[in-house]
């Protein structure tokens, strides 16, 4: 059965369950969206702006234009029947009204049912917009979703710890963003179990984190009560590492890797 965009948005929100985290493997084009969506157990997808930009030879940090970002999201969403969340960076606008317009466009033109939106000013994790401004930008994204009639799942990123900032400020930002209309807080910098536990205790809503080697294992994140785990550009790195390894082996006249015969088609 093909789900409507409204149904996909409602499903996507329902999949964010504390203790049973939604695992979203980040994709960057039509073929990765299709292949990942066909993997057993996958329930939803998320894009990664870093990957989408880099495969085009462009730096991350809104190196794409708004039109390019929406087109990339459209291609990915069209390649899979699953709900898709888009990394929408900072909303591709300097003001709240622009974010409202852009988010509505993304929903209506691309078929997207979720977004990540950042609270840092530039490409780095610091400085950030002041809390009031950042919260107003979340509210503006929610307004765009309301205008579209689609209950967009907003995953509001808190860059404070990743940018070298203060714990109390990070928690204050997380709660302010939830109050402004975010559904989930994408809390960067939770590098150990203690920080994950403290964040779950102090943030009044569902939490999303990055998974990577050296960070808290997936099963433990589930036990602690995380609601969503993604991998950002790490999945592109994983793919490139496999490609480079295969290229090294083939150049050395090694055996053909079994994966060279992997069946794929759009």
TrEMBL record:
Keyword terms of this UniProt record: Lyase, Pyruvate
GO molecular function list: lyase activity
Domain of life: Bacteria
UniProt KW Iron keyword: no
Name of the featured protein: Isocitrate lyase/phosphoenolpyruvate mutase family protein
């Amino acid at each position: 059965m093909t789900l409507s965009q409204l149904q996909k948005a409602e499903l996507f929100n329902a999949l964010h369950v504390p203790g049973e985290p939604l695992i979203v493997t980040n994709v960057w084009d039509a073929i990765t969206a299709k292949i990942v969506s066909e993997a057993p157990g996958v329930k939803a997808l998320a894009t990664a702006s870093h990957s989408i930009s880099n495969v085009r030879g462009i730096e991350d940090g809104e190196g794409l234009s708004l039109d390019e970002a929406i087109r990339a999201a459209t291609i990915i969403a069209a390649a899979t029947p699953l709900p898709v969340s888009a990394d929408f960076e900072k909303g591709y606008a300097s003001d709240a009204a622009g974010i409202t317009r852009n988010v509505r466009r993304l929903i209506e033109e691309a078929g997207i049912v979720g977004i990540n939106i950042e609270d840092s000013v530039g490409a780095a994790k610091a400085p950030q917009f002041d809390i009031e401004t950042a919260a107003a930008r979340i509210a503006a994204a929610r307004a765009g979703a309301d205008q579209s009639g689609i209950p967009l799942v907003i995953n509001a990123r808190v860059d404070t710890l990743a940018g070298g900032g203060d714990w109390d400020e990070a928690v204050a930002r997380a709660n302010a963003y939830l109050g402004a209309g975010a559904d989930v807080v994408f809390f960067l910098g939770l590098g150990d179990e203690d920080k994950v536990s403290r964040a779950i205790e102090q943030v009044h809503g569902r939490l999303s984190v990055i998974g990577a080697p050296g960070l808290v294992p997936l099963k433990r994140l589930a036990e602690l009560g995380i609601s969503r785990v993604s991998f950002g550009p790490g999945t592109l790195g994983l793919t490139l590492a496999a490609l480079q390894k295969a290229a090294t082996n083939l150049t050395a006249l090694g055996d053909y890797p079994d994966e060279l015969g992997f069946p794929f088609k759009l």
